[in-house]
Specification:
single chain; 164 residues; seven-stranded mixed β-sheet; two-stranded antiparallel sheet
Length: 164
Amino acid sequence: MTDKIFGNLDFDGDFYGKITLDFFGEPTEVDLIILHFDDEEDGISDSQYEVYNKFIENWNLELQEKVVKKIIEYYNEEERFSYGPDDDDEEFNRMWPELDTVEDMVKTLELDGLIIDYAFSLEKQKSIYLTFCYTWGNDTDDNGIGVEITGDEITDIGFRDIAF
């Protein structure tokens, strides 16, 4: 289907497409997923358009920096040194670099997805999710990071499955 806001979308239980977001001055094509529940009216709901438009309105350099600072905090408190080879310090240090600045962290991240929650969920909390791939660690499952944003506040961060 061709949507007036999102362009070409495929439907396979949820709506799937691509959009371009600015990420620190770089246009970045990301996967778009709009979650759809069978009992919802057909198509994309007004609340899903509303939360997307609000996100786009707020998606400026200040919010981008806020997101990356939360990822730095998450990395240093939850991920860093959580696993790795016990007998190879060089490999261990390569897996877990020191990442304390926005500039350093941005070099390790790839913004790869935007997920808009189910319409019925948006009645409770108007959240949108960003997903990122990263280069640290040795993540063979490609978990990535998910960041929940409500308005211009980061309300949750964790593995990317928080968005689903």
